[in-house]
Amino acid sequence: MEPVLQTFELTKRFGSKTAVDHVSMQINRGDIYGFIGRNGAGKTTLMRMVLSQALPSEGRYELFGQKPVPELQQRIGSLVETPGLYSNCSAKENLLRFGILAGAEAREADEVLDMVGLAGTGSKSAGHFSLGMKQRLGIGIALMGHPDFIVLDEPVSGLDPAGIQEVRNLILRLNREQNITFLISSHLLDELGKIATRFGIINGGRLAEELTVGELQERCGGKMRFVVNDPEKAMEVLRETMDPSHVEQRDYAILVQEGTDAAAVINRRLVEAGVDVSSIARESGSWEDYFIERMGR
Amino acid sequence: MGRLLRFEFRKLFRQPSLYICLAVTALLTFLSVYALYSVSQAVMEDFSSVQGMSPSEIAMLAGFSETSGRGQMLKALSSDNVTLLLGIFTALFICSDYSMRTAKNIIGRGYTRTGWLTAKLAAVGCGCLLFCAAAMVVSYISGTAFWKSGEVQSRDFVLLLVQLLVIFGYAALFVFWSVLLRSSGGAIALNLVIPLMLGLILTILDYLIFKDTETLSRYWLAHAMLKASNILADGKDLWHAALLGAAYTAVFTGLSYLVVSRRDV
Question: What predicted TM-score, i.e. pTM, was given to this entire model?
Answer without folding.
Answer: 0.78
